[in-house]
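Notebook entry, structure prediction.
Reason for the run: the old model in the group folder had no record of what sequence produced it. Starting over properly, with the input documented here first.
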Amino acid sequence: MITLGAVSYLNSQPLLRGISCELIKTTPSKLISIFESGKVDAALLSLYDILQRPSLEVVDNIAIGCRGPVYSVFLAYEGPLEKIKKVHLDPASHTSNQLIKVILKKFYQLDPEFVAISNSDDISLPRVFIGDPAISFRQYATCSILDLGEAWYRFTGLPFVFARWCLKKNHSHQEEIITLLHAAKEQGLREREEIAASHPNPEFAFRYFTEYIHYDCGAEEEKGIKLFQELLQS
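New structure, fully documented this time:
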């Protein structure tokens, strides 16, 4: 029996369409430990975690990414951006917490203190938000928003990838799992309107699936991944 580990957010739903095997859903920062424990055969891992583990088998042409604004990954802050002295990081994130460091340091030449918080309910600003809590916050926010997907694209001209499906090298069910994941993506992309219809705000959900989140990982996405890795190491 195949078991998959997936992100529990709205953005992953089109990649899980029609999957009947067991699914363990959690936040991105918790998925890597579940994957490494052997509880799942494949997982939708955070890009930052993948880059730290080059031995992983990454499934081609499936991702959670963006080509401009992403809506659900941002820095919320008050006052001028250049006056920020401290940034609270989202405990659910690995990749986005690293992305904000790259954006502020490399693109804006800012060097604030980055502070880990343990409580997801802590909304001390400035703060990084990701996923469904970010969507809920942004829809009613009165503060300034720096959309990390939009900032990345503005400075690089490249898409950004947040997560990809991975499994361990030479997994005994590798071909079966990869076929399953590609079929789920194809079905999910065809049925985005139907998936969105079950959301409390169907119009927003459909726009989110079609305008903000991109599910392919082609040559441009690979360039974005490579640049992100280089900036992390510089």
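Summary: The chain is about 40% helix and 20% strand.
The old model has been moved to the deprecated folder.
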